[in-house]
Specification:
The chain is an alpha+beta fold. The protein is built from six helices and eight strands, in the order αββαααβββαβαββ. It has one domain: Gcn5-related N-acetyltransferase (GNAT) (Aminopeptidase), CATH 3.40.630.
């Protein structure tokens, strides 16, 4: 791990290294973000060109250089050195500084617990560093992400429109056992079997 990667918040778990994406990994990044099965969950259109991947990696690197605690990192398999996807820890859009944890993995890495492992490491670092609470949002029908949130110990509070235009499941966690969420959902969580 380079000094720049260390300063940009790199972490390691049993199976993955969480470190900044590298420009030379743009093909893998593009291959992940060009897929509709990935793009549909992160609120965007599939990437159209490798150039978009390079530009986004460069923006992520600049953001990490400016604020090393917040951004988007690669989740790299220790066994192969291949990025499985991304994990992020950043302020939510249109909020008042609320922090979001999130992830998106290449479909060839789904179903192996890698999102949970990477997000747990990043979440633990944030809470250890004194972040009072962390949020996660997921599309109402994103059962995979809802399961990851639950495995992380996050509590489903309900549905919100606070940060994104589409309704989202609102998950929350705090490092303090007696703390209550600072925000409330707009409505109740969906009935089990219909969404989360």
């Amino acid at each position: 791990m380079s000094e720049a990667e260390h300063l940009s918040g790199a972490l390691a778990t049993d199976r993955v290294v969480i470190r900044p994406w590298r420009v030379e990994e743009a093909d893998r990044f593009y291959d992940m973000r060009r897929r509709i099965e990935v793009a549909r969950w992160i609120g965007g259109r599939p990437m159209q060109t490798r150039t978009e991947a390079v530009e986004l990696i460069e923006r992520n690197l600049a953001q990490l250089a400016a604020t090393p605690s917040f951004g988007c990192w690669a989740v790299v398999l220790r066994s192969t050195g291949v990025p499985a996807g991304s994990v992020l820890f950043k302020p939510l859009p249109n909020g008042d500084g609320e922090l979001e944890i999130g992830w998106h993995l290449h479909p060839d890495s789904w179903g192996r617990g890698l999102a949970t492992e990477a997000a747990a490491a990043l979440l633990q670092r944030g809470l250890t560093d004194g972040v009072p609470e962390v949020w996660a949002v997921a599309h109402l029908d994103n059962d995979r992400s809802a399961r990851v949130c639950r495995k992380l110990g996050m509590r489903l509070l309900g549905v919100t429109h606070r940060w994104y235009s589409d309704p989202s499941l609102m998950f929350w966690i705090s490092g303090q056992p007696d703390q209550l969420p600072s925000l409330k959902p707009d409505g109740p969580a969906p009935t089990p079997g219909r969404g989360a």
